Amino acid sequence: MDIEAGDILVMKKEHPGCGSNRMRVIRAGADFKLSCEGCGRTFMTPRSKCEKKIKSVLRDQAEKG
Question: Which of 18, 24, 27, 29 has the most CB atoms lying inside 10 A of its own CB?
């Protein structure tokens, strides 16, 4: 999957803390640093585990060029 910093990931399951299913990618590499769009919590997760849980990827085309 082609995921870059700044993308918003719509996940299959909701964040247990706030119920939001949208996560913003802060850093992408072997693992992802994500920020919950609902409560603002940031966390790290392995790329392989996270890619299985993604429903869709949202990008702002104006930002990417």
Answer: 24
3-state SS, residue 30: coil
Residue with tokens 């995921």: 3
CA 57/CA 23 separation, integer angstroms: 10
d(CA 29, CA 39): 24
Contacts 24+ apart (CB under 8 A), 15-24: 15/39, 15/41, 17/41, 21/55, 22/58
pLDDT digits (tens, 9 = 90+) for 35-62: 999 999 999 999 999 999 999 999 876 5
pTM attached to this predicted model: 0.85
- The total of other beta-carbon atoms located within 10 Å of residue 42's CB is 12
